[in-house]
């Protein structure tokens, strides 16, 4: 919301020397978010003058309208001659007064103006629009000044258009609807600065008369608990809004339309009371305020025909037939509190105006605005709460402005159908603000601050009964009143004290494991990503998962974010591979990604969850029934690799990632999870979506905990991923708890290093051979590492050589050569006995 400070000064005595910085800090201290405070005097530099259009030549042969104008700018150009300007706007004519910036001037945003030749003519300056001047967002045409503007050609245009003011742009939070007005902001500034405030909402206004202004029936006093109206007749339809009113609307970003409509918009900004102006002559009968009937339709002012629902409130013309709801219900002519209808709007020939100021249910308005996607300025205020006491004040002010500037005569009749309930009092302990904030507020200080915002406070011992004012519908419980006390006294007075951490046992074992796994993968060069857990129904088909695979059944989200992805994932690979494809499409070729997250496995035979209300706490049986349908959610870790694992460069050739790197990622995860290497085994497997010849299953103590390897070529083609892409996925919850590992004993004696190369059948997993060597070598073996795999025709068909580096060390002595060789021979003997291994070269 944008407001000029000059408007605020009409109701709050701001210090004359108040700087934009001090104004901003005052508002921020009150909890109002300030987007900007702009001194318009500095926004446009150079010659900005009033001009009068004398001649217009329409240029043809171009794709858009182009006009060559000669504009009288007085002596501002130094010659007194007409200024030649090329302009693309068409909403002005000879004789109109406009705003002209001459060469050498600079518009907001650093847009410098000069003289140039364009469209075959010289253009010396620019005729400005509202947006170009930084006064609003209207760029539909240039700013045409009213004919009665007293300025002459060549006069400084800044005071004429309001560029001699300071404009504050605020973002009002949903709980402070009262601040969406000059009245509300001025009141807040009076609190912050300690200066007098004059409430325009407290102005005297005549009440309802025995003879109503117009026949009106309100059939739903919950949706509309107050409806006021008054008629002005004989308005001059050619009367325009005064320049000061047009300028303020423009600065606030509201388009100038016509005098009656501009008045309603002006009072909405000033008082916070949205209003509506009807063309009285276009009404055929009494007004009926009611809920809509499903199937009714209304064409709103934006030209859209909308189908109404039962929750919508409408204002109807009982003189128009209604085949849907019945003729006695009348035809809808306005979507109440949101937007008026085309059939009753004020038009260029309107002479008789019916002003309406009502009070609508905020919940109803919010839902209606969202349902119809109509977020009007009026709806924005209604859903945040409007003062129900403003109706007659706004009506009286609107009538006086229209009579003054439109020449009409106000009828004596005033309608005021009032069913407003008084605000409910709230009782709080006097020391509650102090206990909640940590600042010791004396009871008299609490009373003083609450009375400052308009509350009526009565004390009964150590308890306060607080009745909020009508303009503060957000004050409904003790917490709201505590916030007001703290806010007005100053947030900066609340001490910054760190809370005392409650006693606990630190991270759980699963939390420590997840952190360890994430850290280990990151250290290996993997980048963590977080994917949405939603997948499409055809994902399993694209991954080649068999029909009877337990990953096929999935939980369907009742209200999915996307209709194309309504299922919860049963594997991390689907969303993870989608992220891989997206990054490859953005030009990244070498990628190593991982994710740790939950997958969702539906419980067999689970039905629908029970329907539980909010009036009472669910019973144990309801809790149990709800828990029975919650899917099982094991925690998985998955990784994918594509491109080069080691980059190529001047230092040598690179190395592409392959299936072995995916398996190594699984080993890294299990090592980080605290599982000793001797308990981990790897063996060949066939498991979608992996390549059947390059897939391994990882086991801990003989139980499968995951799979790794190269993805199937058909899967890669279907997902548009590069060949040889590797992947790994483990079920972290299936990995057993890490054993208690004793501290290692470090030997100071030298090791004995022996290499062995074993020739055996290629179907034997290398991990099984390694386990046999460890078993046979005994306690002297410190480490074993596979460093070479070799196959050739000399070894025989289906045979390969596995070369291992064995490290032997004794904790209490230096090993002799004989001891090391004996340990090696024992290790080889076990491998030979178990797998038929033969020492290569023996």
Structural notes for this entry:
- A seven-stranded mixed beta sheet has the order 29-32-33-39-38-37-36, with helices on both faces. Strands 3, 4, 5, 6, 11 and 12 form a six-stranded antiparallel beta sheet that branches. Strands 14-17-20-21-22 form a five-stranded mixed beta sheet.
- It has six domains: 72 residues, Phenylalanyl-tRNA Synthetase, Chain B, domain 1 (2-Layer Sandwich); 119 residues, OB fold (Dihydrolipoamide Acetyltransferase, E2P) (Beta Barrel); 203 residues, Phenylalanyl-tRNA Synthetase, Chain B, domain 3; 67 residues, 2-Layer Sandwich (Phenylalanyl-tRNA Synthetase, Chain B, domain 1); 214 residues, BirA Bifunctional Protein, domain 2, CATH 3.30.930.10; 88 residues, Alpha-Beta Plaits, CATH 3.30.70.380.
- A hairpin with a 3-residue loop joins β7 and β8.
- The model has no long low-confidence stretch (mean pLDDT 93).
- With 842 residues, the chain is an alpha+beta fold.
- α5 packs across α6, α6 runs antiparallel to α9 and α19 packs across α20.
- The chain is built from 20 helices and 43 strands.
Topology of this structure?
Blueprint: E1 2-4, H1 5-8, H2 20-29, E2 33-39, E3 48-59, E4 66-72, E5 83-87, E6 97-101, E7 106-107, E8 111-112, E9 115-118, E10 121-124, E11 126-127, E12 144-145, H3 158-161, E13 166-171, H4 182-193, E14 216-218, E15 224-233, H5 243-251, H6 259-271, E16 276-279, E17 287-291, E18 297-299, E19 305-307, E20 313-317, E21 331-335, E22 339-340, E23 353-360, H7 362-372, H8 377-382, H9 391-406, E24 409-410, E25 415-418, E26 426-429, H10 432-437, H11 443-452, E27 456-460, E28 463-467, H12 478-489, H13 509-523, E29 527-528, E30 534-535, H14 539-542, E31 567-568, H15 573-585, E32 591-598, H16 620-628, E33 635-642, E34 644-646, E35 655-656, H17 659-672, E36 680-684, E37 690-700, E38 703-711, H18 713-719, E39 726-731, E40 752-761, H19 766-777, E41 781-790, E42 799-808, H20 817-835, E43 838-839
Parallel strand pairs: 14-17, 29-32
Antiparallel strand pairs: 1-13, 2-13, 3-4, 3-6, 4-5, 6-11, 6-12, 7-8, 9-10, 15-23, 15-24, 15-25, 16-23, 17-20, 18-19, 20-21, 21-22, 26-28, 27-28, 30-31, 32-33, 33-39, 34-35, 36-37, 37-38, 38-39, 40-42, 40-43, 41-42
């Amino acid at each position: 919301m944008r407001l000029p400070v000059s408007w605020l000064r009409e109701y709050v005595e701001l210090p004359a020397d108040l700087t934009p910085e001090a104004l901003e800090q005052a508002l921020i201290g009150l909890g109002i978010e300030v987007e900007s405070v702009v001194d318009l005097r500095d926004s446009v530099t150079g010659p900005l003058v009033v001009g009068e259009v004398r001649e217009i030549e329409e240029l043809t042969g171009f794709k858009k309208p182009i006009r060559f104008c000669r504009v009288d700018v007085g002596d501002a150009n130094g010659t007194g001659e007409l200024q030649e300007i090329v302009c693309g706007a068409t909403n002005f004519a000879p004789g109109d007064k406009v705003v002209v910036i001459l060469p050498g001037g600079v518009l907001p945003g650093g847009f410098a103006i000069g003289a140039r030749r364009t469209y075959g003519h010289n253009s010396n300056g620019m005729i400005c629009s509202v947006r170009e001047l930084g006064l609003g967002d209207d760029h539909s045409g240039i700013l045409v000044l009213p004919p009665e503007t007293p300025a002459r050609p060549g006069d400084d245009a800044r005071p004429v258009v309001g560029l001699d003011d300071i404009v504050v742009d605020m973002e009002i939070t949903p709980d402070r609807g009262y601040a969406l007005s000059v009245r509300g902001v001025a009141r807040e500034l009076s609190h912050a600065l300690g200066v007098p405030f004059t409430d325009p909402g407290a102005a005297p206004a005549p009440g309802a008369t025995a003879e109503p202004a117009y026949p009106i029936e309100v059939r739903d006093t919950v949706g509309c608990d107050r409806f006021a109206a008054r008629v002005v007749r004989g308005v001059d339809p050619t009367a325009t809004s005064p320049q000061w009113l047009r300028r303020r609307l423009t600065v606030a970003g509201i388009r100038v339309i016509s005098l009656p409509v501009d008045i309603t918009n002006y009072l909405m900004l000033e008082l916070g009371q949205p209003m509506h102006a009807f063309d009285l002559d276009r009404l055929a009968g009494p007004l009926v305020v009611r809920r809509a009937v499903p199937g009714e339709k209304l064409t709103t002012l934006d030209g859209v025909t909308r189908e109404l629902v039962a929750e919508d409130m409408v204002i109807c013309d009982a003189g128009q037939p209604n085949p849907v709801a019945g003729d006695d219900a009348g035809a809808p002519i306005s979507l109440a509190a949101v937007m008026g209808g085309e059939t009753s709007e004020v038009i260029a020939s309107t002479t008789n105006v019916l002003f309406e100021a009502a009070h609508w249910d905020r919940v109803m308005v919010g839902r209606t605005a969202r349902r119809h996607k109509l977020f009007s300025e009026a709806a924005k205020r209604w859903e945040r709460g409007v003062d129900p006491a403003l109706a007659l004040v706004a009506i009286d002010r609107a009538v006086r402005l229209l009579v003054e500037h439109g020449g009409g005569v106000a009828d004596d009749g005033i309608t005021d159908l009032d069913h407003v309930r008084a605000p409910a009092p709230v009782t709080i302990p006097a020391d509650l603000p102090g206990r909640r904030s940590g600042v010791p507020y004396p009871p008299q200080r609490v009373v003083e601050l609450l009375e400052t915002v308009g509350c009526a406070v009565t004390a009964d011992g150590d308890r306060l009964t607080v009745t909020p004012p009508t303009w503060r519908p957000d004050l409904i419980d003790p917490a709201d009143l505590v916030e007001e006390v703290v806010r007005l006294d100053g947030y900066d007075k609340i001490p910054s004290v760190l809370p005392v951490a409650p006693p606990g046992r630190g991270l759980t074992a699963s939390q420590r494991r997840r952190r360890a796994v994430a850290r280990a993968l990151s250290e290996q060069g993997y980048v963590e990503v977080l994917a949405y857990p939603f997948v499409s129904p055809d994902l399993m088909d694209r991954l080649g998962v068999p029909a009877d695979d337990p990953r096929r059944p999935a939980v369907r989200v009742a209200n999915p974010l996307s209709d194309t992805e309504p299922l919860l994932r049963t594997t991390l690979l689907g969303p993870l591979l989608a992220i891989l494809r997206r990054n490859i499409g953005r030009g990244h070729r070498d990628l190593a990604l991982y994710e740790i997250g939950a997958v969702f496995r539906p419980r067999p035979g689970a039905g629908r969850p029970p329907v539980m209300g909010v009036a009472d706490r669910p019973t144990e049986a309801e809790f149990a029934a709800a828990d029975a349908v919650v899917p099982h959610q094991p925690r998985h870790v998955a990784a994918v690799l594509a491109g080069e694992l080691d980059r190529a460069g001047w230092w040598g050739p690179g190395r592409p990632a392959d299936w072995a790197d995916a398996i190594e990622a699984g080993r890294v995860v299990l090592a980080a999870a605290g599982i000793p290497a001797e308990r981990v085994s790897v063996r060949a497997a066939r498991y979608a979506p992996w390549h059947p010849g390059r897939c391994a299953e990882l086991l801990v103590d003989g139980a499968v905990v995951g799979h790794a390897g190269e993805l199937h070529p058909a899967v890669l083609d279907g997902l548009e991923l590069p060949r040889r892409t590797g992947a790994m996925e483990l079920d972290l919850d299936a990995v057993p708890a890490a054993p208690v590992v004793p501290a290692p004993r470090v030997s100071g004696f030298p090791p004995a290093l022996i290499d062995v190369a074993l020739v055996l059948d290629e179907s034997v997993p290398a991990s099984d051979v390694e386990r046999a060597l460890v078993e046979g070598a005994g306690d002297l073996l410190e480490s074993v590492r596979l460093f070479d795999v070799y196959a050739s025709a000399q070894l025989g068909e289906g045979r390969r050589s596995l070369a291992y580096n064995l490290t032997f060390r004794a904790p209490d002595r230096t090993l002799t050569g004989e001891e090391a060789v004996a340990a090696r021979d024992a290790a080889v003997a076990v491998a030979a006995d178990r797998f038929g291994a033969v020492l290569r070269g023996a």
